[in-house]
Design goal:
3 domains; 22 strands; 18 helices; six-stranded mixed β-sheet; about 525 residues; Rossmann fold; alpha/beta
Length: about 525
């Protein structure tokens, strides 16, 4: 990388020397090289965005910098001195503070107590609370925050708690502030307030590392950005000089996994549908702080793909359709009739099922057998007082083990010991056993081998061909294009467009829509 003067937003005298230089950073976990020779620079008085898809290495790089992880190779230089931190406390001692997405504060304490925790003013060995609160108020004033330091933290919104966390980080006179997804749960006004604070810190010469999946926010706040992909460095760029389309392309890469050739399900236009009414219709459906109101029709016998970068709102949309999250805007209609879908059980009763992207935490119960995992949905549909008979269980389980090619073909095998691909098949079997009318699949092929991906994609096409409605979410655009009849495009937690898929639609069309943010096609 060539030397670059830093901030475009601080002062006319732009610093030349970076405060952080990471060179050739390599870090491996068992069986995985998380970072491979990554270089990174951070200058005083700039906001530097770290960009990349899930698994690109962003969090790993931050943890390597702050001493959470020990690097295998490379050098970390802070303010001209080579450093090797054994933990975040040592990093904080040299002025590097981190504010994570999950606010790590004590909501039962006051704002002042949270800001000054560990740095209270003491006299004669006792905490001087009046002076401590006064010092906390001074820190709040320096960031133009009008917050009562005596108020209880739990009386404030998440946005205010984020600002308190930043104030706490600055108590140690941090010269480097790392903000890891600070806006993930904030609305537009709260984001604007946070950005005012970030800009004021930047203008005071603080180096700010900003991690976010929201493209609009990255372009609004950052001076430069670094892109990672699959644990490697793609490049460092001035934000103003990198068009959004190019950023998206650099993040997702053009080297998507080559999968087996699939026979694509024939694409049907609206005019060719045998049914004139959607099976599920979302009208102005939304949830504050989660996803902007959206419209979406899903017809029986079609696959609707959801495309967008991580954090674009794909999962949030799916969870509203399924009732895992409760909407506070709009309505859902099933077969044209208003439907109150406020819980997963009410969705299940209407034939709507959802396979979560979090296979290990929200899907497979690792300690249960394959048989028990497959029959969980069937039992939940019946209610726990009406047990599914052993005969019915054996019939369902044996049938899906054969139909989906689950290996090993042993219903009494512990599900947690199966490969990722076979665990995904067990999850599919669980929901297919309930004979759903709408199947929502959130990243069903993530983290599984090429052969298992091809099998699952083929199954999705067959289910739609047999009349099932499918909502399909994947970070791999080629996979979405291969399977979907229509594609709803998401960005920054709102639906920005919809594409009727045919042989002329390419990944570039989707990338342009993600980058431009509309209008609908």
């Amino acid at each position: 990388m060539t030397a670059t003067n830093a901030s475009s937003g601080a002062s006319d005298e732009k610093p030349v020397q970076p405060i952080v230089v990471m060179t050739g950073i390599t870090l491996s976990f068992p069986g995985v090289k998380a970072l491979d020779g990554v270089d990174f620079r951070l200058f005083p008085g700039e906001v530097h965005a770290l960009m990349g898809e899930n698994g690109a290495g962003k969090s790993t790089l931050i943890k390597a910098l702050t001493g959470v992880y020990t690097i295998d190779d490379g050098r970390i230089v802070v303010d001209g001195q080579e450093r090797s931190f054994s933990g975040p406390a040592q990093a904080q001692d040299v002025g590097i503070s981190t504010v994570y997405q999950e606010v790590n504060l004590c909501d039962n304490l006051s704002v002042a107590e949270n800001i000054m925790l560990g740095h209270e003013v003491r006299r004669a060995g006792m905490v001087d609370w009046r002076s401590t609160r006064r010092r906390a108020a001074e820190h709040l004033r320096t960031m133009n925050l009008d917050i009562d330091p005596r108020s209880s933290l739990d009386s404030h919104s998440l946005a205010v708690q984020q600002l308190v966390a930043i104030s706490r980080a600055m108590v140690v006179d941090a010269r480097v502030l790392i903000l890891d997804e600070p806006t993930s749960s904030l609305d537009a006004e709260e984001v604007a307030r946070l950005f005012d604070v970030v800009r004021s810190l930047r203008d005071r010469g603080v180096a700010i590392l900003f991690v976010s999946h929201f493209l609009d926010q990255v372009y609004a706040i950052s001076d430069r950005l670094t892109v990672l992909r699959n644990g490697t460095l793609v490049g460092e760029y001035r934000t103003s000089e990198l068009p959004r389309v190019e950023l998206v392309q650099k993040m997702i890469g053009r080297e998507l996994a080559v999968l087996e050739k699939l026979e694509e399900a024939p694409k049907r236009s609206v005019a060719e549908r045998s049914d004139t009414q959607p099976f599920v219709q979302a009208i102005g459906l939304g949830r504050k702080g989660s996803i902007e109101p959206f419209d979406l029709d899903v017809y029986s016998g079609e696959v609707v793909g959801l495309a967008g970068l991580l954090g674009s709102g794909r999962t949030e949309l799916a969870r509203l359709l399924y009732g895992a999250d409760r909407a506070d805007h709009g309505e859902i209609r099933v077969h044209g009739e208003p439907a109150r879908i406020r819980t997963p059980r009410s969705a299940l009763a209407r034939g709507i099922v959802y396979s979560s992207e979090s296979r290990k935490t929200e899907g497979i119960v690792g300690d249960l057998t394959v048989r028990e995992n497959i029959t969980l949905g069937l039992q939940a549909e019946r209610g726990w007082l009406r047990r599914v008979s052993r005969r019915k269980t054996d019939e369902v389980v044996d049938g899906y083990i054969k139909a989906l090619g689950i290996r090993p073909a042993n219903p009494d095998a512990v599900a947690g010991n199966l490969s990722g691909g076979n665990q995904q098949k067990v999850l599919l079997a669980r929901w297919l056993a309930t004979q759903p009318k709408l199947l929502i699949l959130d990243e069903p092929t993530r983290g599984i081998d090429v052969g298992a991906k091809a099998e699952i994609q083929r199954l999705v096409a067959e289910l739609a061909s047999d009349g099932m409605a499918v909502v399909f979410i994947s970070a791999e655009l080629e996979e979405v294009l291969r399977l979907s009849h229509r594609i709803a495009v998401m960005r920054d937690r709102r639906k920005v467009g919809e594409i009727a898929n045919d042989d002329d639609v390419t990944t570039d069309d989707v990338v342009h829509l993600i980058a431009s943010g509309g209008p609908e096609v």
